[in-house]
């Protein structure tokens, strides 16, 4: 007979921690935890928000409503750029500088989604190791799933919870792999575009689209032999941006250079963001932008719920399969099939 191993005090503590983690805290406990800035409760609440489980959705809505009154003034910054531009290194350098100034920084880094597990595959916490250990920083990698522009559908709710937890700077990193970045542009106060010099990126300066949305452009990796190319790119991008009209608050996007790896030029970038914010608040465009975002959020939520409720209807599911088969056999036109399916929502 094999004798039982004597359980150590350390082992008991680990078991107790595991047991506590398995216990799902109440909605009121989560709200209270968020309000006092507890990272574990904030992370759990965001997990509920991201869940597709209907029971979780109900709790998530209660948490959001309970945290609305505790939202504080914040600055929301969207950061995008092609893979390899150094977004994570830049965000870590910016985040560390901001926490050093006494700010609380939340990073909502939207990862590409694994086609197998549906989870995040880049692991932003491992790419921002120093910032992840900072007590005044919170990093949340979220899978982009099937959302337009690589932005998780629930990012807006996550922003609100981070603000309720006392984070006054919210950095939203997008995937930046070609999807439309208009989604993240519609949920932030300042939209920052990271670029590279000497990589063909300069040509993007004469195109509309993402350049037109940018409130500021930063040429990263401006160090060593690449410093000259970065300065050249800065001149070219500045010229290109002047082809576009000024923003609503008469702000003309600026172009700066930096080396996130060597922590050079980061302070100038934050000065640019705060200058923009001060001008926007003075002209009231900051408040108008937030109001417009909330209205868009409301309409998008309505559209999503209509979509979800329609396709989860058992009768619709059954009829949908039949109509798809009929279309395959060329027995019905796609247009008539659509009208027939949509008619189900008007049935008493």
Residue-averaged pLDDT: 83
Strand arrangement across the biggest beta sheet: 3-2-4-1-5-6-7
What sequence of helices (H) and strands (E) makes up the elements?
HHHHEHEHHEHEHEHEHEHHHH
Structural class by helix and strand composition = alpha/beta
Radius of gyration, whole Å: 24 Å
* Helix coverage percent: 40-55%
Low-confidence stretches: 114-123, 202-206
Q: Count the E strands.
A: 7
Tally of contiguous helical segments:
15
Q: Calculate the terminal CA-CA distance, rounded to whole Å.
A: 69 Å
The backbone outline, from C-alpha atoms, is globular
Biggest sheet details = 7 strands, parallel
- Strand percentage lies at 5-15%
What's the topology here?
Blueprint: H1 9-22, H2 27-35, H3 39-50, H4 54-67, E1 75-80, H5 87-100, E2 105-111, H6 124-127, H7 129-132, E3 137-143, H8 155-164, E4 169-173, H9 182-185, E5 190-195, H10 210-213, E6 216-219, H11 227-241, E7 254-257, H12 266-282, H13 285-311, H14 314-328, H15 334-342
Parallel strand pairs: 1-4, 1-5, 2-3, 2-4, 5-6, 6-7
Helix pairs in contact: 2-3, 2-4, 3-4, 3-8
């Amino acid at each position: 007979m094999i004798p039982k191993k004597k359980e150590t005090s350390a082992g008991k503590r680990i078991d107790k921690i595991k047991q506590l983690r398995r216990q799902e805290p109440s909605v009121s406990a989560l709200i209270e935890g968020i309000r006092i800035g507890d990272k574990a409760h904030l992370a759990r609440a965001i997990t509920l928000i991201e869940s597709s489980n209907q029971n979780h959705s109900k709790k998530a809505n209660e948490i959001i409503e309970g945290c609305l009154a505790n939202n504080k003034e914040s600055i929301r910054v969207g950061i995008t750029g092609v893979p390899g531009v150094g977004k994570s290194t830049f965000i870590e350098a910016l985040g560390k500088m901001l926490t050093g100034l006494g700010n609380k920084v939340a990073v909502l880094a939207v990862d590409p989604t694994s086609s197998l597990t549906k989870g995040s595959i880049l692991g932003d916490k491992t790419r921002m190791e120093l910032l992840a250990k900072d007590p005044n920083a919170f990093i949340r990698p979220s899978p982009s799933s099937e959302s337009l522009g690589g932005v998780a559908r629930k990012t807006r709710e996550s922003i609100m919870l981070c603000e309720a937890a006392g984070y006054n700077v919210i950095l939203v990193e997008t995937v930046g792999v070609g999807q439309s970045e208009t989604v993240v542009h519609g949920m932030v106060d300042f939209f920052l575009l990271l670029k590279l010099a000497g990589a063909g990126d300069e040509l993007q300066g004469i195109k509309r689209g993402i350049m037109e949305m940018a409130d500021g452009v930063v040429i990263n990796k401006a160090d060593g032999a690449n410093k000259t190319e970065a300065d050249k790119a800065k001149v070219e991008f500045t010229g290109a941006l002047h082809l576009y009209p000024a923003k609503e608050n008469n702000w003309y996007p600026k172009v700066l250079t930096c080396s996130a790896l060597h922590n050079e030029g980061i302070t100038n970038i934050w000065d640019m963001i705060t200058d923009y914010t001060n001008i926007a608040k003075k002209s009231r465009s900051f408040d108008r932008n937030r109001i417009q975002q909330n209205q868009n959020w409301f309409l998008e939520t309505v559209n999503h719920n209509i979509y979800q409720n329609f396709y989860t209807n058992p009768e619709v599911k059954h009829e949908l399969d039949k109509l798809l088969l009929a279309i395959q056999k060329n027995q019905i036109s796609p247009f008539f099939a659509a009208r027939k399916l949509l008619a189900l929502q008007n049935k008493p």
